[in-house]
Amino acid sequence: MYKALIRPILFQFDPENVHHFTFSLIRILFKLPGVKSLFKKLYVVDDKSLERQVFGLTFKNPVGLAAGFDKDAKLYNELSNFGFGFIEIGTLTPKPQEGNPKKRLFRLKEDAAIINRMGFNNGGVLEAVARLKKNKGVLIGGNIGKNKVTPNETAVEDYEICFKALFDYVDYFVVNVSSPNTPNLRELQDKEPLTKLLKQLQVLNFQKEKSKPILLKIAPDLTDEQLLDIIDIVSETKIDGVIATNTTISREGLRSENKEEIGGLSGKPLKQRSTEVIRFLSEKSNKAFPIIGVGGINSSEDAMEKIEAGADLVQVYTGFVYEGPALIKQINKALLNYRK
C-alpha cells in the first residue's frame, strides 16, 4: 500500500516538509486506541532467533533505523513499532543549531536516492535528553557531533559535552566525523585528530561504573590506506565497532536531474561502495570488531549482501523512505530463512 498509494502522494511535496508532516501524522495516529497493536501485527517479526549479541548489547533483531531520521529523539517509541531492532538518534550537538539554509533535502527518484545538506540541524543534546527520559524499552544509539561554529581544534569538547549528557539515556554511542555537510568536519577522520578524540571519549567512558559501546561512523569515500588507518585506530583506542558508511560526495552514475546538488548522497547508488568498505574492514581486520552496515539497502537481498560481507547489524534510512516499513519486515523474514 505504501509504494502504490502513500508514496506517490508524499513525493509530490517538498521532502523536508513531508518529513515533518509524517512525524506529526504518526504521532497523532499512535494516540488512537489499537494503532500500536495494528502496526506491531503488520510489521514486527517477533522471533528469538533474530536476536543478536553485539558489543555487549542484546538486539531484538539486527535491523536498525539509521541516524538522521529521528534526529531529535521525537518519535523513537512510535518508530520501534515498525519492526526495528534499534533506533539511532542524532546527530546531536551541544547547542541547538538551524543547520544549512533551505532547500537542503532532495529526492533523486530515478536513482532511488537522496541528497541532503542538512548540516546537523537539531534542538541540542539537552532537548533530546528530556525526550529520552520517556523511553519505553527501545534500544537507542546516540549519534554525536560538533556545532558548526566550533573549530576543529576544540571539537573534542563538543563531543565530550554530548557524551556526558547522553550517557544515562542511550545504549551505545556513535562518533560522527564523516558528514560532508559541516565545514571541515571530515578532517577529523585523519589519524591523529581522530585518535585523540576517541581516546578522550574512552577516558570518560572508563571512568563510569559500567562503560558503554562507542562506535565510529566513517565515510564511504576513504581510500584503502585510510581504511587501514581506521583499523589501527579502532585497535589503539579500543572502541567497540564501526558504522560503514555515511553518505558519499560521489555522483558517479546518477541519472536524476538534480544530481549535482551539493551534499551527501544516500540510497541505492551507495550500495556497492558501502559493501566494499564493510568487506575490506572485515577481511583486513580479521573480523576484529563489529560492523554496522548501512548504505543502499533497498531490499532484503541488499541487507543480506551487507551481512555476508561482514556486517553484524544493518541500518536503513533512504530505503525506508522509498520502500516503506514493509522493508524491515522483509529483511527480518529473510534473516530467519538465512539462519535456517
From TrEMBL:
Record's keyword annotation contains Cell membrane: yes
According to the UniProt entry, its GO molecular function terms are: dihydroorotate dehydrogenase (quinone) activity
Residues in domain Dihydroorotate dehydrogenase catalytic?
50-335
Q: Which pathway does it operate in?
A: Pyrimidine metabolism; UMP biosynthesis via de novo pathway; orotate from (S)-dihydroorotate (quinone route): step 1/1
Membrane protein topology class:
Peripheral membrane protein
Which GO terms of type biological process are on file?
'de novo' pyrimidine nucleobase biosynthetic process; 'de novo' UMP biosynthetic process
Q: Which residues are listed for substrate binding in this entry?
A: K71, N116, R117, M118, G119, F120, N176, N181, N246, T247
EC number(s): the record gives 1.3.5.2
- InterPro entries, sorted: Aldolase_TIM, DHO_dehydrogenase, Dihydroorotate_DH_1_2, Dihydroorotate_DH_2, Dihydroorotate_DH_cat, Dihydroorotate_DH_CS
Asked if the keyword Flavoprotein belongs to this entry, the reply reads yes
Which cofactor is recorded for it? FMN
Q: Which CDD domains match?
A: DHOD_2_like
Q: Which GO terms describe its cellular component?
A: cytoplasm; plasma membrane
- What positions does UniProt annotate as the active site of this protein? S179 (nucleophile)
Tell me which UniProt keywords the record has, alphabetically.
Cell membrane, Flavoprotein, FMN, Membrane, Oxidoreductase, Pyrimidine biosynthesis
What is said about its interaction partners and assembly? Monomer.
Query: Which family is this sequence assigned to?
Result: Belongs to the dihydroorotate dehydrogenase family. Type 2 subfamily.
Q: Provide the function of this protein.
A: Catalyzes the conversion of dihydroorotate to orotate with quinone as electron acceptor.
User: Which protein is depicted?
Assistant: Dihydroorotate dehydrogenase (quinone)
Organism in which the protein naturally occurs: Winogradskyella aurantia
The encoding gene is pyrD
